[in-house]
Amino acid sequence: MSFISSADTDDPRHRRRLTTSVKDSLRALSLQLTLLNHQVSTHLEIKDVDLDCLDLIGRFGPLSPTALARHAGLHPATVTGVLDRLERGGWAVRERDTTDRRAVLVRALPGRAAEVFGLYSGMATSMDQICAGYTGEQLELLAGFLRDVTEAGQTATDQLAES
Q1: Do 112 and 90 form a contact (C-beta atoms < 8 A)?
Q2: Tens digit of pLDDT for each residue in 69-114?
Q3: Could you say which of 10, 48, 74, 107 would form a disulfide bridge with 78 (CB–CB 3.0 to 4.6 Å)?
Q4: Burial label, 61 (beta-carbon count in 10 A; 0-12, 13-18, 19+)
Q5: Cα angle, residue 41 at apex, residues 118 and 53 outer, rounded to 5°
Q6: What is the dihedral of CA 13, 15, 16, 22, to 10 degrees?
Q7: What's the predicted TM-score (pTM) here?
Q8: d(Cα 143, Cα 129) in Å, to the nearest integer?
Q9: Angstrom distance (rounded) from CA 161 to CA 120
Q10: Are strands 92-96 and 104-108 parallel, antiparallel or unpaired?
Q11: Tell me, what DSSP letter sits at residue 102?
């Protein structure tokens, strides 16, 4: 990855080069995270889509299978297969909703979380070291930028799903 100097940041051509560099870096990051997640899935002996759904359950759960399908962008029948595999592997459980006994909620089982976290520990340590080189103000800027990019990605995904 090349470094672009901060000279002439108001110059339109320089700004386009910087913007292109940011987009290229985000694409490279996306690919690296995909490869990392694939390696984690392989080590856990689960499918990549199962790991994605397990992450969503951990972040947003407990949630209904329908909500999981919506978050994951998957057909509900596909989610049924994912949940069957996650239950068999001891990763998640489907339970009756205590407020509506007709509804089912999915939650991650905490017993195996250490396995997942352990496989991401190298990346987490690297990120901690990288973040240590930034000021609090710079980290706030980066966090805001990444939230905005994530929201833009969600919007683009929603628009494609609707078309």
Answers
A1: yes
A2: 999 999 999 999 999 999 999 999 999 999 988 999 999 999 999 9
A3: 74
A4: middle
A5: 100
A6: 150
A7: 0.86
A8: 16
A9: 30
A10: antiparallel
A11: T
Task: State whether residue 93 is helix, strand or coil.
Answer: strand
- Which pLDDT band holds residue 2 (cuts at 50, 70, 90)? very low
Give the pLDDT of residue 8. 64
What six digits make up the tokens of 80?
A: 């049924």
Amino acid letter, 133 = G
Which residue is it, tokens 């359950």?
57
- Indicate left, alpha or beta for 73 from its phi (over 0: left) and psi (-120 to 50: alpha): left
Match 């089982």 to its residue by tokens: 109
Which residues make Cβ contacts (< 8 Å) with residue 86, sequence separation at least 6? 46, 50, 53, 54, 57, 92
In degrees, rounded to 5, the angle at the alpha carbon of residue 59 between the alpha carbons of residues 74 and 50 is 40
Collect contacts of 89-98 with beta carbons under 8 A, ≥24 apart.
Answer: 89/45, 89/46, 89/50, 91/46, 91/50, 91/54, 92/54, 92/57, 94/65, 95/62, 97/64
